[in-house]
Amino acid sequence: MLPTYRPTEIAFVYAVAFFQGIGNIVFPASAAVFKSHHRFSDSDYGLLYLALIFFAILSSLAAAFLVRRIPLKLILLVGIFGYALSQAILALSYPMHSHALVLISISVLGIGFGFTGTAVNFYPTQFFPLHHDAAIIFVHVAFGIGATISPALLALAEHTIGWVAYPLLTALIMFSLATFSFTLPLRATMPKSSHEHMSSSIPFELWLFCVIAVLYALCEATFSNWAVIFLREAKGLPEPTAGFGLSVFWFALTVGRFAASVLARRIGAEKIYLALPLLMILAFLLLPMVSGALPLLLCFSLAGLGCSAFFPLNVSLAMRYFPQHAATTGGLMSAFVMLGIGFASYGIAPLRAYFPLEQIYAFSALYPLSALLIAIRLVRKLSPSMAFYSS
C-alpha cells in the first residue's frame, strides 16, 4: 500500500524540480560569460559537458543501484546538496577567473543531477499512482519553468547586481530546500523485484527506451546548449536576442508540457509521444534555412514544442510498461539522457572545424527520426491501446 503524502511534500518535490531547471541552465546561459570573462575556447566550453556527462552518468547509475538499498529521501537530499554546492563553486570561479573551478562546479552539478533526477522522476508515481503520466510531465513542467526564466534572470542579475549574485542566490535557495527536507517524511514504496542483478533483470525493450533518451538528449542539447552561439555566430543576431532565443525554446518546451499533461488523458500518451519527434525533425531542417530574428525565434519555439513532453513521456511509458523496474528507471534515464547531452555539447565543438553550425543542425534531424522509428516499434509491441498500428 502506498503511503499518504501531505501537500507540502508534493510541493517540495516539484519545487526541487523547478530549481533544478534554474541550476542546469546557468551553464549554457552563461556561454558568453565563460568566453569573455573566463576566456573559454569552443573546446574548453565543450569540455565542461564532458565532465558533466561523466559525473551525471556515474551518479545516475549509482542512484539506480542504491534506490532499493537506502531511503529515496536520502538520494534526493544528496542531489539537492550537490546542486547547492555546484552553484556556490560557480560563483567563486568568477572573481578568480578560474577554469578549474567552473569545471569542478559542473562536475558537482552532474552528481546532483543524477541523484535528484532519480528521486524526482519516481516520487510522482507515488503521489499520483492513477495519473502518473501527467504527474511525471508536471515534474518536467516545473523544471522547464525554471529553465525558461533562468536566462532572463541571469541577464537581469548581470546588468544590475552582477552575474556572480545569481549562482550565489541559487546556492542559498538549494541549501534552504535541503535543510527544509529534514522536516518532511518523503517515504516511498519500492516495487518488488525477484531479480538481484540489474544487468540480468532489465528487459531489452527498457534498454530501447534508454536509447531513445540518448537520441532525445542529442536533440535537446543541440537546440539549447548551442542556441546562443548558433544565433550569434551563425545567424548574426545580437547577444540579447540570442539569449532570448534560448528563453523562447524553454518557454515553448514548458507550454508544450502543460498541453501534453492535459491531452495525455484525452487522446492518449502514446499518440503525443509519437507525434513530437516530427516537430523536432521540422525544426532541425528549418533552422539552417531561415534568417531574421522572428523566423529564427519561431523555429526555436517549434523545437521547444517538439522536445516538450517527449522525454517525460519516455520515462512515464517505460515505468508503466515495466512497473517492476520503475524505481531504477529514473536513474537509468538520467544516465542515458546525460550521455546524449554530453555528446552533443562536447562533440559539436570539434565538428565545427569541418562543418558550419547550419549543416550540423540539418544533419541532426537524424536524431529525432531514429527516436521515432524505435518508439513506433516499442508502442506497437507494448501498448494495447495502440495495437491497431500493427494492422
From TrEMBL:
Q: What UniProt keywords are attached to this protein's entry?
A: Membrane, Transmembrane, Transmembrane helix, Transport
Identify a single GO molecular function assigned to this protein: transmembrane transporter activity
Localization recorded for this chain is: Endomembrane system
Q: Per UniProt, what is the membrane topology?
A: Multi-pass membrane protein
- GO CC terms, sorted: endomembrane system; membrane
List residues of the Major facilitator superfamily (MFS) profile domain: 9-383
Family matches, as PROSITE patterns: MFS
Q: Does the keyword Transmembrane helix apply?
A: yes
Record-linked Gene3D superfamilies: MFS general substrate transporter like domains
Question: Mind telling me which Pfam families this protein's record contains?
Answer: MFS_1
Q: Where are the transmembrane segments?
A: 12-34, 46-67, 74-94, 100-123, 135-157, 163-186, 206-229, 241-260, 272-289, 295-315, 327-348, 360-379
Which PANTHER family does the entry mention?
BYPASS OF STOP CODON PROTEIN 6
Protein family membership: Belongs to the major facilitator superfamily.
Query: Under what name is this protein listed?
Result: MFS transporter
Q: Which species is this record about? A: Candidatus Thermochlorobacter aerophilus
